[in-house]
Amino acid sequence: MKSLFKSCLMQSISAIVPLLRQVRRRKLVLLYHEIFDQREQEDDARRSHCHPEMAVEVTVFARHLKWLSTFADFVTLDQIMEERVDSPGSRWQVAITFDDAYRNVFRLALPILEHYRAPAIVFVPVYYLEDQRRLPWWDLGAFIVSNLRDVIQVKYQGKLQVFDLRDAPGQQAFLNALSQHCYYATSEQMLAYQVAVELAVRDRLTLPHNQFARPDELAAATSSGLITYGSHGVHHINMAQASITQARHELARSAELITEWTGQGVSWFSYPYGKEEFRSPATGSLIRQLGFRGAVINNADYVTAAADFYEVPRLSVIGTWSTAAFRSWVVAVDFFNRMKAARPRRVPATAVEPATAEVAYLAPLGRSPEDRHE
User: Fold this and answer.
1) Do 272 and 233 contact (CB within 8 A), yes or no?
2) Can you give the pTM of this predicted structure?
């Protein structure tokens, strides 16, 4: 019943999209993650390991931009924030952002951006670009449940967790445990649990390298004149759980490396996970102190005159959306945002216990445990 109501609602709003986009001229920031080519999904070397909700097929991405270009101008984050007052007589303004710096953003999405002369800012979690051996935990979980049908035993904190991946409930239990140990954790805790999971499957599953771009690919993309970069931290951690010292490192070190790799200054930060429970006033103050011009979050809404430079809302594009759903969210995001706000709020999980796994295993190639954060 719930899905039927949602489908009917989307179709109803979709039917009046042409009217809404004419009478409601807005400023909107879109968030994408991975872009993939469906034709390559049988190719082990190029198949995307990203969760389906985070991955948008390249022809769908092209259709998004083609439709948007009929009524909107593509602008940068800076441009959309410089003039935040709605202008009834002008076209929409849309800024495009990508979180995580997947390689396919440059290989597949960039040619489409170039076709529409659409600028984009890519937010980079530098740890995963430095150490290609490690999948981020969300891709690790998606890869394991897609490729392993067996019982696994995860040994962590002296306890044994058993997951039966041969059926959907067992797979979901595993993904829930993985997300709980990683969403609400420090970088050490997150990586320690991830190591425990990797050790649990390594005899039965060969884990691929991650699919993030490499530093030289970031540098090459700057020649387009359309791509700029922002910080997504070092380890993609929950900034609300980080100490001030760790948060400072996540912000400053990531900006330093991105500038070193690309020659560009870094003035924007994207909060990992982006929702309210992953942000804190202390982190917000630190972002300002370190000289960032602003920060983006994952709250779906338009950019208005009241928008805070350090909490710029974005509409996160879901890979499983239909065309009607995408268009409906674009033209009525404030309506859907109010609907979501009316739902009972999720209670954040408590932080997990301190990590005790082998720290040496967490160090990037060629680095000792002591300098793994440098």
Assistant:
1) yes
2) 0.86
